[in-house]
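Onboarding guide, step 5: your first structure request.
Type a short instruction followed by the sequence, for example:

Predict the 3D structure of this protein.
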Amino acid sequence: MSKKVSFQGVEGAYSHLAVQEFFPDAETVPCKTFELAITAAESGNVDYAMIPIENSAAGRVADIHRLLPKSDLHINFEHFQKVEHKLLVHPETQQDQIKKIISHEQALAQCSEKIQQLDYDILIGADTAGSAKYISEQKIFDTAAIASSLAAEIYGLKTVDESFANSSNNITRFYVMSKNENKDFDPDKTYISSFLFSVNNTPGSLFKVMGGFATNNVNMIKLESYNYGADFVITQFYCEIEGHPDQENTKFALDDMYHYCSKVRKLGVFEKSAYRSRQ
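The system replies with structure tokens like these:
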């Protein structure tokens, strides 16, 4: 039986492409917002949610860091998706007719060099695939969209530039999340453990948490902070470490974390993606 996977956006979005690559036989469920994509998995209407967490060009996806603390989902896998921006037009459009360009603001920023060269007027769309859908359905001939090859296929658009981005090295990292927590441990595999934590409001608490990882030879591969609450005095940290809680050194490091933190929440333990070994 094939899996059902939710994602934010319309068909042809890069998240849709990520689902196709990670779950080739899955039934995809497009959602208007990240909240709806997450809720679909929380309610059991889908098996997984495919959620973007960060991009190599644009940085972290701010909405997700706001939503993760509120979600009941667990991270089960990570997936790295190559983002290849195409310049798409209506099949009846001629090159000299193009006067405007539309896409999500991040895609526009990632293609700024060619946009400036071509001197197109810029229109900001809700998302990349939605912009492609708009041109197709409204039969617009003077506007090009920046979107994926999948969007071109779905909406019957013509590709006039196969590589429109400033850089060819554009990768989005996704979490594959579900209601079920990964609990298995295979010593022959390498894992990443992800946490949200707040330290006690005492001098040196964060230093002591970090010291626990260093002392126990646990590599921290990500640490980000953001304030929450109206007074901006409470800082929450999002971290990822190399290791599984069942490994002895990781367990000792986590014992220190729980001791010096006022709040700790495990977001998930998942196998390290093979993509990382290419780096």
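Each response can be followed by summary notes, for example: DSSP finds nine helices and 15 strands in the chain.
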